[in-house]
Amino acid sequence: MFYRPEDGHGLPHNPFNAIVTPRPIGWISTRGADGSENLAPYSFFNAVAYTPPQVIFSSTSAKEDRGDTKDSLANIRETGVFCANIVSYELRDMMNQSSGPWPKETDEFELTGLERAECETIACSRVVAAPASLECRMTQIIKLEGESNFLTIGTVTGVHMRDDCLVDGVFDVLTFNPLTRMGYRDYSVIREKFSLKRPGD
């Protein structure tokens, strides 16, 4: 099968998200200038550089009470900071609950019952139960082609790792089993890993 996106795919559901998988989930926590808190998952998320460490996430829809975007990006525009929390398998239901189209006034930490803690380098909350959290200073917001598509780039200014996820000095993903996003309504979980030695190493 071949299709041009502008012509449509003719399938019951868009296959694009199912093709580019699995994708890590950035559980983005933000705080508005008014002090309101928000927590929402984004599967268009990844790490993109080592020095300095940088991450990206994309917001691709809008809410009526936020104009051309959603709560996360609206808060980042106001404050210039955000925290990217990593989602473990055990947190899947709370992550999913936080993904709803809740009003701006909704605090997803309270909605899900998640414990929060203040970040060290930025004015923002983080998810205490997350296996890792990356405190970020926004460096760029790029308007992408298409309505309400915005790419946010952040430089990591602080890194939290749960002590139980460190094994012999290595951050071991098998201690918490990362949740990953597939296509449609599907997710997957990392329960196995293997290593490959690159040529020249």
UniProtKB/TrEMBL annotation:
Keywords: Oxidoreductase. The keyword Ligase does not apply. The keyword Lipid biosynthesis does not apply. It comes from the Bacteria. GO terms for molecular function: oxidoreductase activity. SMART domains: Flavin_Reduct (SM00903). Gene3D superfamilies: Electron Transport, Fmn-binding Protein, Chain A. SUPFAM superfamilies: FMN-binding split barrel. It is an enzyme of class 1 (oxidoreductase). InterPro entries: Flavin_Rdtase-like_dom, Split_barrel_FMN-bd. Its EC number is 1.5.1.-. Residues 18-173 form the Flavin reductase like domain. This is Flavin reductase family protein. The lineage of its organism: Bacteria, Pseudomonadati, Pseudomonadota, Alphaproteobacteria, Rhodobacterales.
